[in-house]
Protein 1
Amino acid sequence: MQTNCSVYIATSLDGFIAKPDGDVNWLHDPGYTIEGEDFGYNAFMKSIDALIMGRLTFDKVLSFGEWHYKKPVIVLSKKRRVIPAHLMGKVRFMDGEPPEILEKASKQGFNHLYIDGGKTIQQFLNAGLIDKLIITIIPVLLGEGVPLFGKLKADLKLELLSSSKFGNGFTTLTYKPIYQETS
Ligand SMILES: NC(=O)c1ccc[n+]([C@@H]2O[C@H](COP(=O)([O-])OP(=O)(O)OC[C@H]3O[C@@H](n4cnc5c(N)ncnc54)[C@H](OP(=O)(O)O)[C@@H]3O)[C@@H](O)[C@H]2O)c1
């Protein structure tokens, strides 16, 4: 079965997913709350089989204390890591190049994967393995921080599949990357 990789992420208008120290509290400003609106999150989470997340994102999630993922989480790390006791059976570690990681995930029965974390997304994009990007733009400028995007091997065009705007100023853009065949 074919493996698909999607990104679902929020970014500042100037392209940062966290402040330089990893802070993401700016995403949860009470002024952004819209009663009953989850910006497509639950429908997206239902559509995936597992998450593939960079170790720095995993560390951030652990710092929140509560584990809210109902799907298996694959954490990428080159360092050997210990799985916290309360996450046994929910989290597994992997490392390697993106195609190898996808092959392993597919063998474990995961065919639609949520790729999360800036450096992790950049690697999968560079490997031509992201099929869909769902990006919610938060109307704030941070000036500096952890970038969503980085260096690419070549320009990457994208097809805009949909756009939605919300009363709090959020805009969600869904794109499909158009990878060029390299000879
Ligand atoms: N705004 C949002 O919606 C949103 C979403 C997600 C994350 N974030 C924030 O973004 C920040 C983290 O993003 P980030 O770009 O700094 O890092 P990241 O992508 O979360 O993690 C990078 C780390 O993942 C590991 N890694 C990545 N690819 C690997 C591979 N192929 N094989 C082995 N290990 C691999 C490495 O860990 P080792 O160093 O252990 O080898 C690397 O240092 C956090 O502050 C998080 O809260 C925000």
Protein 2
Amino acid sequence: MKVCIAGGGIAGLAAAWALTKRGHQVTLVEQGSIPNPLAASGDEHRMIRRGFGSADGYARTISEAFTAWDELWRDLGRSHLSHRGVLAMSQFEGDDGENFRLGYDRMGEAYELYEPKEAARRYPFLDPATIRYAYFTRAGGALLCQRIASDLARWLTDNGATLRLNSRVDAIDADKGTVGLGDGDLIAADQIVVTAGAWVLQLVPELSRHLTLYRTFVAYLTPPDDLASAWADAPAILDIGGETGAYMLPPVAGTGLKAGASLVKRPACDPDADRVESHGEGERLRDLLSPPLARIREYAVARVRTCAYTFTADDKFLSYRRGKALIVSACSGHGYKFGAAVGRRLAEAVESGDDSSLLRWLRAEA
Ligand SMILES: Cc1cc2nc3c(=O)[nH]c(=O)nc-3n(C[C@H](O)[C@H](O)[C@H](O)COP(=O)(O)OP(=O)(O)OC[C@H]3O[C@@H](n4cnc5c(N)ncnc54)[C@H](O)[C@@H]3O)c2cc1C
């Protein structure tokens, strides 16, 4: 089958990988480079973890995601998952930090629970006076997105797929099965896969009924010198507790120490607009990390990275069929960790035409 994929983030790249493995003739079109620094998948690292709070469906599906990544590492000849484990903490009763722990309990996921003083002994960047407890799970850590993208692009080229980089899909005729590019080229395909991330509404405007676009940013931080070694060995931080929805990724394999928070996202109209950091954004995000981080003002903001992404109302992933085009969005801020599995499932659906099984799986209702 000839398959044309619009969008070379993790979903498009992984779909291209899985379809190529199944013997299909794949052309992947990406408007930027791979990795594309403006895409959600283009950042240095993303967290993979077993904690999903009340979303038990995804807590179950994540096992398949780990297996799919293992298959990818075998094909690439090396792993891009840094197994640092995952830490979280609670600041007050019923906060997200506590909800993630309750999710672990329901799923039977083992964790080590630390009193505040013990947590600060193990992780000296924490202020023990500000937390009720911290807990650590071994499963999970950081996925090195930029390395994954580069290696996947290389694997695809080596295995016969065609990559059209810096080439924009301008129009999709889902009935005829054609994809029109900005340079005037027309690609004919038996099936079209649209994995356009934050740009999907430009190609499939009717999805605005289900998807809302947001602009957010992450901050890369330089810790004070005497805390650098604690961070160098630190796990990923799933949630700092409290009400900011803040998380952190430690420096791993040459990446920086990164922080993000659900509190700083805001609705947007255009994924390409407002992509330059505004004055003081990084410091504002940094300051949300205290509590529970100690000495927060001693952290320098090294750089800020803006991001665009879409959310569904229930934070679940989405697929949608229009003629020969299958549109998939593993969105709502938690899709990267499922990337390799999304690619495999997408390839299965392209072959079988069983869109409803795909949607059930994407919504973790299978
Ligand atoms: C700040 C932030 C933190 C996150 N943290 C995590 C995390 O820790 N763990 C996790 O699992 N998930 C996380 N996510 C979510 C995760 O990054 C996304 O779910 C995932 O990367 C989406 O991948 P995608 O391939 O669907 O979309 P994208 O990565 O956005 O890729 C879409 C691609 O399509 C291309 N494209 C779009 N339109 C066209 C066109 N017309 N023609 C050609 N190419 C086009 C774009 O250039 C882009 O490269 C986070 C997201 C953000 C924004």
